[in-house]
Amino acid sequence: MTTATEAQNFTFQAEIKQLLHLLSHSLYQSREIAIRELVSNASDALDKMRYVALTEEAYREPGTLEIVIDPREAEGELIIRDNGIGMTHDELVTNLGTIAHSGSGEFLKTLSGDARKVADLSLIGQFGVGFYSAFMVADRVQVRTRSYRGETGWLWESDGTGSFTVSPVEDPLPRGTEIVLHLKQDSKELATPGRIKEIIRRYSSFVPYPIRLVSGEVLNDQKAIWVEPKNQVTEEQYTRFYQHLTHHTEETPLWHLHLSVDSPIQFHAVLYSPPTNLERFGFARLEHGVNLCARRILVQSDCRELLPDYLRFLRGLVDSEDLPLNVSRETLQDNTVIRRIRTSLVKGVLDRLDQLAKDQPDVFKTFFAQFGLMLKEGAVVDSMNRERIARLL
């Protein structure tokens, strides 16, 4: 293991240089993607520490695993800390710059020759290089880290132009990693607590560790009910989650469906039927309203590939361990995992409607008055399930 005593200079691997140039000059509007990626990386580091605590006797008591975000508006800085597994000197050098990531080249390929895709940098996490999205919002990045196995802390620094330095930290560092973003002028809004709350609640509400501001306020206090056993979730919790997803705080869904599937594809889902169909009142055609998550991280809002159009009225969330953190709209239709999830969801919805018609005819009657036309649409277009749907009409 390397034990440097002074700052060392390193040159980024060539493809990472290209990637950094692209990111630092990006016009990509949704720069909150950078925060999502860094929080996701922090969550991964906590996952690894949790695994170590379960498998290595010496680290049985890792403390409360958490992510802390410190927006410093006056300084134009944003700091993201975790007390996860941390990195050694060699891991820092390897992971953040000198060793070719197969993902960096693959990511660049997806962007080359297609100007339309340059605007969709949200793909970055799929290729294992999400850390570099920090340079979308920062003109200088510092990483302070100490491995759970080591005593020495290390400082990684770069302005993203082609090289970086790594030096030892003299003062004791806690276990984990701290990323300091020195924000660009056009990204300084990210150094405000209000903006951070908005981003975390949109993208990372369901990360399985506390995400809190340095003031102590926890930002992701929404319970991940979809991974809980059904018999441990109350009707009130289901309703609150529906209201959280739809932002209709006074509305109660007609019914819900809670699925946990392990084979052939692992996923959890909670789907809801709203009480009214706005299409009946002359409003525009309903948009799909089921969010797609991978390992509790939002990867696609209102994902239309999860359900056929005749079930577009459903609201909810699907979360799978078998999906990469980022999947692009271009690849969703061809994704085998998505196709299998879709098949299971349609079966689950039709099973639920069968059950409603039999056990709660009044609820089904109310539902049919609102959404019967969409079921009739399904009987026409869904040849695989036509007979099942016809029995509900």
Describe this structure in words.
With 393 residues, the chain is α+β, with helices and mostly antiparallel strands. It folds into two domains: 8-213, Histidine kinase-like ATPase, C-terminal domain (Heat Shock Protein 90); 225-392, 2-Layer Sandwich (Ribosomal Protein S5, domain 2), CATH 3.30.230. The protein is 36% helix and 20% strand. The protein is built from twelve helices and 13 strands. The strands form two sheets. It has an eight-stranded mixed beta sheet with strand order 1-6-5-4-7-3-2-8. α1 crosses α4 and α10 packs across α11 (361-381). The radius of gyration is 23 Å and the shape is elongated.
Write a concise synopsis of the structure shown.
This protein is an alpha+beta fold and about 400 residues long. A hairpin with a 5-residue loop joins strand 9 and strand 10.
Radius of gyration: 23 Å
What gross morphology would you assign?
Answer: elongated
Order of helices and strands: EHHEEHHHHEEEEHEHEEEEEHHHH
- Biggest sheet strand order reads 1-6-5-4-7-3-2-8
**CATH architecture assignment of the largest domain:** 2-Layer Sandwich
Assigned CATH superfamily of the largest domain: Histidine kinase-like ATPase, C-terminal domain
Main β sheet profile: 8 strands, mixed
Please report the first level of CATH classification, the CATH class of the largest domain. Answer: Alpha Beta
Number of domains: 2
Structural class: alpha+beta
The percent range for helix content is 25-40%
Q: What's the helix count?
A: 12
- Quaternary: single chain
Give the strand tally: 13
Average pLDDT score: 85
Quote the CATH topology of the largest domain: Heat Shock Protein 90
